[in-house]
């Protein structure tokens, strides 16, 4: 099947996302990729979340992709949420997040009804939608799962669940080995999610997700073979999980659109020029590879005290920077007034050594700008993949979710990371009570951006991964071929189901 949207297969797929952009955006990218190979795709979400896909889907339909958008009612009233708050990025506190989570469970019945009525040939669902494994089994079709994490993290989580090595240590900061993995990887109990350390209702949910994951047909990973071949082989061969690594998803997607757009008269590039974010204009004036980009994803926020330390650390590093700031809500005015050292903004602007973005940064464009030479990241998998594709070394500063595993991947396996920051896992919404001091931040940035041999080697290795990432999605590349393989497999299953 060709990647042109014109050769239709008779395969139909339902895509079921989770309620947060860093999960539903990559799943939407997979949906587009499937549609670009001729699969008839339906993306099924809630009403207000669906609004953000409407325009894209209209454009994709015009380009010939067979992709539909459908939605179910989100039970705002039933859980006491204001109309329109349907995803976690709109939840400033634990109370609202808890209500969204309750509403998420209530979506199971209406989504199941839609899928049963449509009888698709397969379901591609986010990891959180555990009930889709059973639904698919009842319908006699495969369910593919999408996690927002590396094959390394999938393997590490399996080792933790299978061997519970954290039970054999005496304290939260004593290290233990993750058994069975291709490299000696050590962690501490404090780096593990709270629900593993202390059983809670989330532990029950997490166990259901894991069981559904183990029983589903196969796993789609936003990664590429050349990046973590030992872990992809381990996951596929030792753990015997059907796995397709089809990333970096966002790079593929560019290729698909570029190809579909060719021949169409559109003014996208002109519009982009006019809308250029001021930080990109600032970067245009900076020397190549000298600016460090500092960002901690779309959800995590820091206290004023931590922001103060970051500001001091960045300024003393002497390295030009772009820093995306997200502040914890609910602190007193007295505290939040002091989140920046006195005169900080004036100094960095006068000397043109830094830029603060309080809001949404054009991260992809920043990372691919030639002036950027390194990334201080929370190791969220989307940011990680974007950074790897741009060929950048990182300061790895994890906070939550699977980010602590990704720090290990960057530092111990890929050897393109410098470690700093939190040693204790914290909930994304609650935030952390650890304070990372300015000298640690300064030293990590200097180490990352330095010219000594080790820094240069890190830089060179990162560059090679960037080249490999871009090759993986080209025709004949590993991810391109894995995408072909998964669709061929689904087609084969459909044909054998039809015959049976
Ligand atoms: N992102 C962005 N601008 C911002 C913050 C985040 O474009 O100011 C994007 C980033 O490029 C990535 C996603 O949001 O695609 C964040 O996902 P990730 O998995 O890294 O972290 P999370 O937000 O889930 O913690």
UniProtKB/TrEMBL annotation:
It holds the Pfam family UDPGT. The keyword Glycoprotein does not apply. Residues 438-465 form a coiled coil. CDD domains: GT1_Gtf-like. InterPro entries: UDP_glucos_trans (IPR002213), UDP_glycos_trans_CS (IPR035595). Its EC number is 2.4.1.-. Keywords: Coiled coil, Glycosyltransferase, Transferase. One of its GO terms (molecular function) is UDP-glucosyltransferase activity. Belongs to the UDP-glycosyltransferase family. This is Glycosyltransferase. The gene is LOC110711362.
